[in-house]
Specification:
By secondary structure, the protein is mostly beta strands. It is 11% helix and 37% strand. It is built from twelve helices and 62 strands. Strands 29, 30, 31, 32, 34, 36, 37 and 40 form an eight-stranded mixed β-sheet that branches. Strands 12-11-17-16-15-14 form a six-stranded mixed β-sheet, with no helix packed on it. A five-stranded mixed β-sheet has the order 46-53-52-48-50, with no helix packed on it. α3 runs parallel beside α8 and α8 crosses α10.
C-alpha cells in the first residue's frame, strides 16, 4: 500500500517556502533599559542610538528626554537632553542640511507642539531653531488626496495649536506631518531667507480618530512619502494610504502627488507613525497597522519609485513601531525602530529593497548571456533571446495570479512580454499548493528573463494535498503532457524526490525514464537543495527525476555578482559550490551525487572521474549556475505563504535554490534551439543531443568551480557539487546551436559592428565537424568577402583551431565605409564559412563630431568609451564591499587640447529619472556631480570621475563640450551604467 502522507524530505528540489530575508536582529533591549512613552529614534555613524521618551515624574509637569545608548544597547546618558512637553520625532541632520543654526551631525527633535530643537549629540546642548506653530501656511497649492484636486483649502491656515509628528529635512526645507482643525497635513517650511515660509503640500479632511499625525520622509532626490487618512470611495471605511509627491510641488516643480498602489489591485492601508530613507533611497516605514503581509504592524519597505514593496515582513508579535531610523555604520546598513508596547527598541541589519539581490541584467551580464550572438545562413548575427521557441514550465498546483505577476516583473525590469503565454491545468485541476508558493513566479519570471523572445506554457499538475503518491505521479504525467504541446522544445521542472522515496512509493524510475525521451525536447530538472543528502539527514541519496539519464540535471553555486554585473571569478572569494559540507542535508546545498538506480550514460564515460564514480552510476548534476543563496533572485508574487489568493498578499521577495537554476538553464537551451531554427534544424533532443553536446564541449566553455562543498567537494573538471561547471553562455549556446548540423564554422565572438580605421579588432569562430564534434587542429583563414574597391584587411589572417576554437586578433581595415564583409573558412569543413558585417569609421580629427541633433555626422574624436569600476580593499589586500561605478574613460583618436580635456566644466553627466505627470510617467534628467577629470599618463584618454556611486537605474547621458571636440557630443549611458556609447 502506498503511503498517503508527504514524506519529510519531499520536494527537496526547492525550498518549501519563499526565501524571505528578515531583518537580522543585532540588539533587542531588555526590560532593564526600557523607556516610558518611547517615541522618536535616530542613529549616528558610530552606531550610537538616540531615543526620545517621556521623562515625567509623578508630581511635576510633563517632561521629555533624549537618551543616548551605545551600539551594544547600554545607556551612555539617559538624559542627554531634556525639555518640557511630550517626546517628539528625531532626525540626524545630514551634510546637505541648510536650515539655519543646524550643523551636520546635529540631532533635530520636532516636539508635538511645534518646537524644533537642535541638539549637539556630544554635549547635549540644545538650541531652539524654530516654532512651527507660529506659522500661517499657504494653502494655494494644497493637494486634497480625497478629491485629487489642488488648492482645495481656502486662504492661509494657521498652525497655532497644531499637533506635529514625523518630519524630514531636504536642503533648506523641512517637511512635517501636521494635524490641525480636523485636517491632516503635510507642510513644508522653507528657510531660503532669514525667516521661514510654510506651505501645505497635501491634506486630508478624513477623520481617523487619531490624535497623532502620520509618518513622512524625503529621499535624496526630493521625493516625499507620507501617510494620510483616506475614505475608500463608495464606502464609510477609513484607511491610511501612502502619498508620494515632490518636495517642491508647492512651486510647481517635481512629481505631482499621487496614491501609489505598490503593484496591488487596490490602494493598501498603511498606518505609519514614522518613515525613514535608506542608502538606496528606499523608504522604510514604522507601521502600527497595515493590510500588507496579511495585516498587522511591522516594518514596510517601499522602493524609491513607489511602485513596489518588498515581501520582507518583520514580525514582532505585539510590537508597535513608532519611530524608525537608518544609518550606515562602519560600512554596514543599520536600522533602528522603537516599540511603544515594550518601551524598548531594536537595532538590526537592514535588508534594502532590491539591494543585495540579483537582477536579470546583472545575471545576464555575469554569465555572458547578454553577449549571445547566433549565426544565420546569410552570414549575419542574430541576437539570442529564444525567439520562435516555447518553454513549458511544470508546476504542482495552480497559481492564479501568475500572469499578472509576470507582467509586474517585466514592467519593473523593462523586459518585453513573452510572445505567447498559456496556462494548462492537468485534468482541469484548480487546487493550490501553498507550501510552495512563489515557485511558479520564480520559474516563469526567470525563464522569461533569460529568453524573453520565447513563449511560455505553464502546465499545472493536479495536486492532491492528502496523497503524495498521486501528486508525484500526476507531476510526472504533467511533464509528458508538456512535451506534447505543439511548439514546446524545453520542459523545466523544479521539483523532485529522493530516489529512496520514489522506491517506497512503488514507482518505477525506468518506466518514467522512457517517457522523458522525446525527440526535439530537452527536459531540464533541478538537482535538489540538500547537497548530496536527503533533506534533514546525512543519508547520501540522489533526487529523481534529476537522476534520470534523459534529463539535464542542474545544480547550483554561490556567488555575489553585484550591481556591476562583472563575473567575480572562480577563486575562494568568487563563485563556489553552494553547500555546508556534511551538513548540507540540514542547512542546504546544491543537489548532486550518484544514482542508486540509474547506470552511467555513455556521454559521462571518460568525463566523470572513476574516483568519483567507482560503481559506474549516473552522476549529477550535469551543469550548474548561481543558486541565489548569497544574492537572492528578485521575484514578484501575489500568492505568499499561508495566504489565500488576495490582492493584499503581494510583494517582492528574494528566492534561491536549484528552483531558480533549472528555469534559467531552460532559457539557455531555448536560445540554442533558436539558433538551430535559423538553419532549419530541429530543436535539441535531451539524451541524444543536449547532454552529449555539453559533455563534449571544451572546458573553456564553462566556469570550472573548484571551491565549496555540498557533501562532495568541488574540484577541477567534473565534480558531484557543480557538474561540468557554470556557463560561459556566449560560448556554450552557439556550440549547442551548431551541434550535429554538419561541418560548420560559426561566429563565436563577433567584432564590434563599427570600428575606426586602423584600430585593431578581433573575432573568434567555432569549428565543428559533421557530427558536431569540435575540430582540433588545422587552420582557419579570414578574408574580405565584400567591401569598397581597394580595401585591405590587415593583421594575422590565419589562426590555429584548438578544441574547436580559432581566434583572429590584431585585424585592421582602412578606408571609411559601410558594407565590409569578413568570411572565415576552414578546409577541414569544406564548403562552409561564417561571415560577419562590419563598418569602418574615418580616422578622426581634433574637430570631432557634430552635435547629435545637428543633422550632420563629422568624424569622431572619441574612439572608445567605457565605464570604470572600483572596489575597496582592506589592510590585508582583500576586497570588501561591492564593486561600484566610479566614472567613465574616454579614449581619443589623436591628441586633444590638454587644458580643455582637464577642465571639469567641459563635461556634464545626467541621470534619467522617472517622475509622474498626472497619470503618466515622464523621463527627466537629473545632474550627477563630477568630482574631477583626470588625465592618465597616456595623453589620449581621460577619466571622468563621478561623486558617490551612481547606479543609473534608468540610464543617463554624458555630454562632452565643444571645447574638447570642436562641437558638443552626447554619449548615452545604459541602465546600470554598464555601457556607454555615442548618442
Amino acid at each position: 500500500m502506498f503511503p498517503r502522507s508527504r514524506t519529510a524530505d519531499a520536494r527537496r528540489s526547492r525550498r518549501l517556502r519563499p526565501f524571505f530575508h528578515g531583518l537580522e536582529d543585532r540588539v533587542v533591549l531588555s526590560s532593564l533599559y526600557t523607556f516610558s512613552g518611547i517615541n522618536g529614534i535616530a542613529i549616528d555613524t558610530s552606531g550610537r542610538v538616540f531615543v526620545s521618551y517621556d521623562n515625567s515624574s509623578t508630581t511635576g509637569p510633563q517632561q521629555q528626554a533624549i537618551a543616548e545608548m551605545d551600539g551594544g544597547g547600554s545607556p551612555i546618558n539617559s538624559t542627554l537632553f531634556t525639555s518640557p512637553g511630550s517626546p517628539g520625532a528625531l532626525v540626524l541632520a545630514g551634510p546637505s542640511s541648510a536650515i539655519p543654526s543646524v550643523a551636520a551631525g546635529d540631532l533635530l527633535e520636532l516636539l508635538p507642539d511645534g518646537e524644533l530643537e537642535s541638539i549637539d549629540p556630544t554635549t547635549g546642548a540644545g538650541t531652539l531653531v524654530d516654532n512651527l506653530s507660529n506659522y500661517s501656511a499657504d494653502t494655494s497649492r494644497a493637494y486634497d488626496i480625497q478629491t485629487g484636486t489642488t488648492g482645495s483649502l481656502s486662504g492661509p491656515l494657521s498652525l497655532a495649536g497644531a499637533t506635529f509628528g514625523d518630519f524630514g529635512v531636504y536642503g533648506d526645507s523641512l517637511v512635517a506631518a501636521v494635524q490641525v482643525g480636523g485636517e491632516d497635513l503635510v507642510v513644508r517650511v522653507t528657510y531660503a531667507s532669514s525667516t521661514g515660509a510654510a506651505t501645505v503640500l497635501a491634506d486630508s479632511s478624513t477623520i481617523d480618530g487619531l490624535a497623532t499625525p502620520g509618518g513622512v520622509a524625503v529621499d535624496s532626490k526630493g521625493t516625499v512619502l507620507t501617510t494620510l487618512p483616506y475614505q475608500v470611495p463608495g464606502t464609510s471605511t477609513t484607511i491610511h494610504v501612502a502619498v508620494g509627491l515632490g518636495i517642491t510641488f508647492d512651486q510647481g516643480v517635481g512629481p505631482s502627488p499621487f496614491l501609489p498602489n505598490l503593484g496591488l489591485t487596490a490602494i493598501p492601508n498603511i498606518q505609519s507613525s514614522a518613515i525613514t530613507v535608506d542608502a538606496q533611497d528606499n523608504f522604510l516605514l514604522a507601521a502600527s497597522d497595515s493590510s500588507l503581509y496579511g495585516g498587522g504592524s511591522g516594518i514596510i519597505h517601499i522602493n524609491g519609485t513607489l511602485s513596489a514593496f518588498l515581501a520582507d515582513p518583520v514580525s514582532r508579535g505585539s510590537a508597535r513601531p513608532v519611530g524608525i531610523a537608518f544609518q550606515v555604520v562602519n560600512g554596514s546598513n543599520e536600522l533602528a525602530f522603537s516599540d511603544s508596547v515594550s518601551g524598548g527598541y531594536t537595532t538590526a541589519g537592514e535588508l534594502s529593497l532590491f539591494s543585495g539581490q540579483v537582477t536579470p541584467a546583472e545575471l545576464r551580464s555575469a554569465y555572458g548571456i547578454n553577449q549571445i550572438a547566433l549565426s544565420s545562413p546569410g552570414g549575419g548575427m542574430i541576437v539570442g533571446n529564444g525567439t520562435g521557441q516555447t518553454i513549458a514550465i511544470v508546476e504542482e498546483g495552480i497559481d492564479p495570479t501568475l500572469a499578472a505577476d509576470l507582467a509586474t516583473f517585466d514592467s519593473y525590469f523593462g523586459i518585453p512580454a513573452p510572445p505567447g503565454f498559456q496556462i494548462v491545468n492537468e485534468y482541469g485541476s484548480t487546487t493550490q499548493n501553498l507550501s510552495i508558493v512563489g515557485e511558479a513566479s520564480l520559474d516563469v519570471e526567470w525563464a522569461h528573463a533569460i529568453a524573453p523572445g520565447a513563449s511560455i506554457v505553464v502546465v499545472n499538475s493536479a495536486y492532491d494535498p492528502y496523497d503524495s503518491v498521486i501528486s508525484f505521479q500526476n507531476l510526472m504525467a504533467a511533464m509528458r503532457q508538456a512535451a506534447q504541446i505543439p511548439g514546446v522544445s524545453v520542459v523545466s521542472l523544479s521539483y523532485g524526490l529522493p530516489e529512496s522515496s520514489v522506491a517506497s512509493m512503488g514507482v518505477s524510475q525506468s518506466a518514467i525514464d522512457a517517457t522523458l525521451n522525446v525527440p526535439g525536447v530537452t527536459f531540464v530538472v533541478a538537482a535538489g537543495d540538500s547537497g548530496i543528502y536527503a533533506s534533514g539527514t546525512n543519508q547520501a541519496v540522489a533526487d529523481y527525476p534529476a537522476a534520470s539519464p534523459n534529463v539535464l540535471a542542474v545544480g547550483v553555486t554561490s556567488v555575489t555578482i553585484g550591481s556591476s554585473g562583472i563575473y567575480p571569478g572562480t577563486g575562494p572569494t568568487g563563485e563556489v559550490a553552494w553547500g555546508s559540507g556534511t551538513t548540507s542535508g540540514i542547512y542546504g546545498g546544491g543537489g548532486g551525487g550518484l544514482s542508486s538506480v540509474e547506470p552511467q550514460p555513455s556521454w559521462q564515460a571518460g568525463v566523470v572521474p572513476s574516483s568519483l564514480d567507482p560503481t559506474g552510476a549516473r552522476a549529477l548534476p550535469d551543469v550548474s549556475i548561481d543558486s541565489g543563496s548569497a544574492q537572492p533572485y528578485d521575484v514578484f508574487t501575489s500568492t505568499l505563504a499561508g495566504s489565500s489568493v488576495s490582492s493584499n498578499a503581494v510583494g517582492w521577495l528574494g528566492d534561491a535554490g536549484t528552483s531558480a537554476a533549472a528555469p534559467i538553464w531552460a532559457g539557455l537551451i531555448a536560445i540554442a534551439d533558436q539558433g538551430r531554427a535559423l538553419f532549419g534544424a530541429s530543436p535539441l533532443s535531451g539524451p541524444t543531443q543536449t547532454l552529449p553536446a555539453l559533455y563534449s564541449l571544451p572546458s573553456s566553455d564553462f566556469h570550472d568551480i573548484v571551491n565549496g562543498n555540498n557533501g562532495a567537494p568541488a574540484g577541477p573538471g567534473y565534480d558531484l557539487a557543480t557538474g561540468l561547471g557554470t556557463p560561459v553562455a556566449n560560448l556554450i549556446v552557439p556550440a549547442l546551436a551548431s551541434y550535429q548540423l554538419g561541418g560548420a564554422v560559426v561566429i563565436q565572438s563577433p567584432p564590434p559592428p563599427s570600428v575606426a580605421a586602423g584600430v585593431p579588432f578581433s573575432l573568434s569562430v567555432r569549428v565543428v565537424d559533421s557530427s558536431g564534434t569540435p575540430v582540433n587542429g588545422g587552420t582557419a583563414v579570414i578574408a574580405l568577402a565584400g567591401g569598397p574597391a581597394g580595401a585591405v584587411l590587415g593583421g594575422n589572417l590565419a589562426a590555429p583551431v584548438v578544441n574547436g576554437l580559432a581566434t583572429f586578433s590584431g585585424l585592421t581595415l582602412v578606408g571609411p565605409a559601410a558594407g565590409y564583409a569578413l568570411a572565415v573558412a576552414d578546409a577541414a569543413v569544406s564548403g562552409t564559412a561564417a561571415t560577419v558585417a562590419i563598418a569602418i569609421q574615418a580616422a578622426t580629427s581634433p574637430t570631432g563630431p557634430t552635435s547629435p541633433t545637428s543633422g550632420g555626422l563629422a568624424p569622431l574624436a572619441i574612439v572608445a568609451e567605457q565605464p570604470v569600476y572600483q572596489r575597496r580593499f582592506n589592510r590585508r589586500g582583500r576586497p570588501v564591499g561591492k564593486v561600484t561605478l566610479s566614472g567613465f574613460t574616454l579614449q581619443f583618436q589623436g591628441a586633444p587640447s590638454a587644458s580643455a580635456v582637464s577642465d571639469l566644466s567641459n563635461y556634464r553627466v545626467e541621470m534619467i529619472a522617472i517622475r509622474r505627470a498626472g497619470h503618466r510617467r515622464v523621463r527627466v534628467l537629473r545632474p550627477v556631480a563630477i568630482l574631477a577629470v583626470m588625465v592618465p599618463p597616456a595623453t589620449d584618454s581621460v577619466i571622468v570621475e563621478l561623486a558617490g556611486a551612481p547606479k543609473f537605474p534608468n540610464g543617463g547621458q554624458l555630454t562632452v563640450g565643444p571645447a574638447v571636440l570642436g562641437s558638443a557630443a552626447t554619449y548615452l549611458i545604459a541602465r546600470g551604467g554598464k555601457q556607454i556609447g555615442l548618442g
